[in-house]
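Researcher: Re-running this chain for the archive, since the previous output was lost when a drive failed. Same request as before.
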Amino acid sequence: PPDDEDEEIEEEHVRRYDATFAEDEEEIEFSQKVSFNELCNAFRTFAANRGVSVEMSSVRAMLASMASGKVLFISCKNKEVLPAFTDVLCEYFGIYGRVTASDEWNTQEDLLWKKGSSADDYVLSDVSNAINSAAKTPERNFFIMLENVSMHNLNDYFSAFLDYANFPSEEHILNFSEDVSLRLPNNICFLLMPSNDNFAEELNPAVAHASMLVDMVVSKGAVPSQPAEEEIKVISRMALEELISEAREQFFVSEPVWKKLDDFTEAVNATERFAIDNKSLLQLEKYTSVLMECGGDENEVVVNMFISKILLLLKASKAYRKENGGKTLYGIIEKLFSEENLSAVQRALVSNV
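Model: Regenerated structure tokens:
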């Protein structure tokens, strides 16, 4: 037998977890009552003052999605401007729960914890601290950002938050340790920044049903020598709900549009099982009302109904994944919604356009 000196003795590494939440952020003042249109203009001015030009239609779609969804994919094709735009988002909405996702993540623990000061020490991540702050301040609207999100492992670490989005009326508990747990509050919206532009092609039904898509059109602008007057409009959770309620009373998509959507569902269902579930329809009702209150016309609203939600459901379906599935689906949409400008929908569904 070998001498003891020759034996390699592996030191056992024991992870140590410190489930102590960070101190809360300082209190913020809420703006007096403002309209969705004013919120759009305030964000656009704020971005422009930092050299980021954002199409107003994109701002409308973003705010409507924030008002109606819990999990948003923020897509931005302009990679040159994306870092500056992301910084603008975080600064304007006060996002300090911001992490970069890893392709190596495979459990919820990877999202909720991060390495501490020494190799075997782990402390709660910025995401965990943001969730705790949201739970303690239910009057605020909280945003948490995940960058570099890949579809291949999103379910592995994010499934609890997909459930949170898919079943908002149910109670969702996060367990950080044997002694520390939190109920997910209803004032959180997750902003997911995909790692590639083809992420929608890899969606599974659970992610598609839980999420909405915002396709941001942004460009690099000159930082003005004399910035326009700006104000960050921060509204409370209650004020946001009041704005949404007012929008739903005053603005709504015409009945023929919903009838065409029913006809579309039936046409797809004739060959492959497909449905737009009630939760998604209610989400679209809220989304379209807010979008119209922000200033969008009916053509913009119809196109964005598809871009923001329906295409995600379609791309997770067997109907889309058949040979020429996207082209076939677009043909049905074009026939039913022939009066609309559907070029954005066509580009999203038909790869060679």
